[in-house]
Amino acid sequence: MKRKCLLILVMVAFVLTGCWDSVELNDIAIVTGMAIDPGEDKKYRLTLEYMNPANFSKTSSQQGAPVSTMVQEGNSIADLAGKVNVGASRQLVFSHTRVLFINEKIAEEGILGFLDGLERSAPFRNDFNILITKSHKAEDYVKINNPLEKVPSLKLQKQAKSFAEGWGGDPKVVLSDFIDALISKGRNPVTNTVVLKGDPEKGSKQESNMSNGREALILFDGLAVFDNEKLAGYLSLDDSRNYMWTQDLKQTTLTFPCHDHGDSAKEKQYVNVRVPNSRTKMETYYRNEQPVLKVNIYTEAQIIETQCSDDLTKIDTFKKLEKNAEKYIEESVGRTISKTQKEYGVDIFGFGEALYRQDYKKFKDVEDDWNKEFARAEVVVSAKVQIRRAGTKSKSFLTELSDGMEE
Amino acid sequence: MNPKLVEKLSLWQLAILIFIFEVGSVAVVGVGQEAKQDAWIAIALATGIGIGLIAFYMFLLSKLPGKNLFEILVFCLGKWVGKFIGALYVLYFFYIASRVLRDFCELIITVIFKRTPIETIAITMMLVIVYMLYLGLEVLGRTSEVFIPYVFSFIIFIGLGTLFSGEMEFKNLQPILADGIGPIAKAIFPQLLTFPFGEMIAFMMIIPYLTKFKKAGKVSIAAVAISGLMIIYASVIQITTLGLNMWERSSFPLLSAAREISLLAFIERVDLIIVFIVMYGIIVKVSVFFYGGLKGIEVIINKPYRTLVFPLGMVISYFSIQISDTFAEHIEEGIMVIPMFLHLPFQLFIPALITPILIWKVKKQQRRTDNESV
Amino acid sequence: MSLFDILFKRHKNKQGNKKTEEELFEQDEISKQYFTNLKKNKNQLKNLFQDTFDFNIDSIKIADQEACVCYLGTMLDKDALTNKVLNAAKSSSKQSLLMDIEEIRDTYFPTCAFEYADNFHKVVWQVLNGYAVIMVDGQKKALALEIGNKEHRAIMEPSTQTIIRGPKESFVENINTNISLVRRRIKNPRLTFESMIIGRDTKTTVAIGYIGNIMNEDILNEVRNRLKKVDIGGVLDSGNIEEFIKDKSFTPFPLTFNTERPDSICGHILEGKAAIFVDGSPFVLTVPSVLTDFFQSSEDYYQPFLMSSFIRAIRYISFMVALVLPSLYVALSTFHQELMPTQLLVSIQAQREGVPFPAVIEIFIMELTFEVLREAGVRMPRAVGQTVSIVGALVIGQAAVEAGLVSNVLVIVVAFTAIASFVSPIYNFSISTRLLRFILILCAAVYGLYGVLLFLIVMVIHLVSLRSFGVPYLAPIAPFKLEDQGDVFVRLPLWTNRTRPTYLYTKSPIKKEGSGKPSPPMQKGGG
């Protein structure tokens, strides 16, 4: 009996002394986005965007803005996050952070300073997008309202996802990818960039949601290329899709000319195809001490729009279009790779990793100056496109029209 | 009562215990980092060696059916020397039990709790184990029977989940055998050999209490083989999902891998599953070592172990905190010191040493009984 | 050695006092001797039943001998008594043969159910049982005649375990009726009912029913022993017996199965279990019972197997829901906000804005309110009960939320938990989840999900350590029996189910030979 009492006492002790880690929902604020700018006095200036739960209540009338932001300066991210309560009433919960905006000025100086903190701490998950802001302060980006999505950061994450699925323009770089690329000797990191169009002052007002046009809008604007941890430069939006071709792009929509004749872009006639499925294989090898970078792209496509009068019921037409598409892909991807070679000289594509897998010994020899090897390498892109079907109509009415004209 | 109604550990339960014992902590902590992307090859080879090891242990046990490791020690080395070495084994088992417990506490503290003192985790876990062992070995076996479907299917689920979330990159496994066999050998010896496979020495305290001792050999070999496959599966998940670099740097790679799961935009953030697998794995592992130690004390002082469960359990939870001040110290000891100076002697050298004595003594005994019967 | 042995050794030491019918009463209470002298007997009876208004001793003459009929007037049908006894007395008055008691019975009461009482205890016993006892002067025995009882409650539809398809009978309070309900279903000569009397004051008849060539002898002996050892003042329901024969008292889980459905009891008896009937209780116990019994309804076997398997899955899931949902809510909302999807988190947070209590207190308040309502609903007179539940629903559902005392989500959690807890077909199993739920909430409040998992593990450890009459409580799951899996989580078609549960160690483990798989008639060539 005595022993039982003792046991109960022990149990009670554990119950009564517990609750160290419990936090009521009323006492937390959920951080959804962060923006890092260079600080005026200190190293960083951190802007946190957190949700205002009252606004999301279904029952009571919506009070206040859906998010509010809070700005602070400090020397390390953890330091900033730790003393954030100088201004905020609630404990901040970082586990739902969706987007991290980094001002390009910070990126140019190198972002090593805070990556470790983000990776090490348990609350940060590995599912937030890292974006480099090209214009304005990063701080402005977490404030821009949108009538469809109440929370700016959630809007941006959704935007990135839809963009990746629709056009293939987002490399889906999350923290772990970035760090992986940073450490790897055969690859350098990239991230997506955003640019702010419009007036951030007006865009951050709730009233801006009342008008049909957007006062301010955040757009994706190509890739940021990093040389190790430092921002080296940018690639355009088209280049970013070409970059994605090399990275196993899954889906996209492709517009390419259906004839070779015609010179300027405006004169040409175009075919538009939807690519539902595509596969990419990278090979890197040495031919007589000359590195060769080879990209093989296998793509399926279906026509969704055509401006040409070719008869889409003929095999030959398909063959021709396929050839044109292959040529278009090969040229554009090749162009992007050579541009990167020349302008930045850093391997953002992971050719080095391909070599590491395919010829380990050779890579060991060159790993320390792989970027130099990359810059002098020969680029071979070969695409194989198969157009499977042509939408709901077989012959285009354009074909009928041109047939009529010929007769 | 009908003897059929009184059950000891069945073969099926033994297999389950071995499986959870092997997989539970290893799948999560991650092993074979020295072998880099070839870790799975190293694990496969180590599994082979592990099978040899359990066969060796079974051989020792089969020489004296129904006797556990301590009784064999006493039989071979005489009462005093045998008991002395037995006492060392008891310390060894308790030490490993507290180390394993510490592993788990570290996981919980880093992943789930920020402010909760680590001691409470150790003590609450230990209370559960104490309760289970107080009720006996068969309760341990049966509890594992209840949980095995979850442990098994959760590990499978993590693999499928990461695969369908599109997070697996099988090219992360290339190049195969880049640096030759060297790193693999380094990974196997001594780390993989001793942890998790050599730790099965603790089962020498359990296998003698089986209902069907004769088939135990085959069953435990099969169980080791299956758990080897499972560890390979887990490490392939980890390497393909995280990439080599991340994998090497993660304290709890399977947890990091599971964090990548995102299915149907709803099934995400499934860390809890991992914590559950580890939790039960740890409970089994600590229980097996603890039970081994308790049984050893039973042999040494000739008293039933039940009265000792609670106090010794508390001692283990105390030591699990005290063995090292920092996580780094804990891990470094685990990698550098323990395998060489504790695992190897206790798992390999002493058993190997007593083998000839055992064979000789058993033969002598047989001859004597033969003579007597004549 | 296992706990189990210890348990039984303890039982063996505690040899209970055996009761036979001859020693029904304490010796100092009533003397045992039956006199040949009628007057002495009469006086003794009169002393015993002194002030009872319904006790009658009518003097009659049977076959020219002094005799008397004694009975409790409220216990039997007086018209029948008049018909049987007094008519017999009348017709015998013409004869003047000396007859002993046996001859009297043979001659005058050839069709009546009867018993001889050769000691005084038995006389009193039969009077108490509603028999008319005829004592004849100079005889060594008295004759007890069953006259026919007053009316009982008719057999009705079960009120606690209703089903849609299947027999609609339920047990009643009378043990004989109950046994007949079982006998009518199982026409097996080896179906045995052993009766015994339990209860110092109530002297309740308790019967063990089993099939002799199926039931395991050891388990049966254990049942007999435990029943014999029951020492209790009054048995008013089978629930009283249940507490005495459990293997372990300190557990929230029911270790004996109870039902008021005869078909369900028959199913259990056929599997090789023993049923315990208690006079005066429409709830019959079966032992040994295992956890999975409580997830099975007899209707499972009357509906198509796919459907029943699905329903069973629903039951297991709702058991888990009823157990952990509130604690999960507490753990997720106060410890592990990161485990919830962002949208869900923010909508829960939005609802909790302005709620003054911590989540634990909030859920405790609501759960307790619900328990109070449930209890009130059960105890209230039917007519008021409706009102109470409507008021309760309004108070909980609307007013509390609108007043900002609790959040919407919490009401959903509590309501869903409550509904889920009603899914178990056996009422006293759902009680156990109610108790455990509160402990789980506490664990969640202290250690979050870690606490919940820890407690669930402790619960499983406790469950596997339980035994019901020597059979492990988690039997076909742990220890795992492959042969029995066809009727645990799913119900396979009946023709696949060839064996009785192996964990019961029955004498004839095979139920039937051959597969009996239904198939369309073989096609013959041509056709």
Structure characteristics:
heterotrimer; A: 407 residues; alpha/beta; GMP Synthetase, Chain A, domain 3; 2 domains; nine-stranded mixed β-sheet; four-stranded mixed β-sheet; 14 helices; 13 strands; C: 527 residues; alpha+beta; 3 domains; five-stranded antiparallel β-sheet; 12 strands; elongated
What does this structure look like?
The complex is a heterotrimer of chains A (407), B (374) and C (527). Chain A is built from 14 helices and 13 strands. Chain A is of the alpha/beta class and 407 residues long. In chain A, strands 1, 2, 3, 4, 5, 6, 7, 8 and 9 form a 9-stranded mixed beta sheet that branches. In chain A, helix 11 packs across helix 12. The relative contact order of chain A is 0.09. The model of chain A has no long low-confidence stretch (mean pLDDT 79). Chain B is mainly α and 374 residues long. Chain B has a single domain, classed as Amino acid/polyamine transporter I (Up-down Bundle). Chain B has 12 helices and 2 strands, in the order αααααααααββααα. Chain B has a two-stranded antiparallel sheet. The longest helix of chain B is centred in the C-terminal third of the chain and has 47 residues. Chain C is 44% helix and 12% strand. In chain C, the strands form 3 sheets. In chain C, strands 1-2-4-5-3 form a 5-stranded antiparallel beta sheet, sandwiched between helices. Chain C is elongated, with a radius of gyration of 30 Å. The N and C termini of chain C lie far apart (68 Å). Chains B and C meet through helix 5, helix 6 and helix 10 of B and helix 1, helix 7, helix 15 and strand 12 of C.
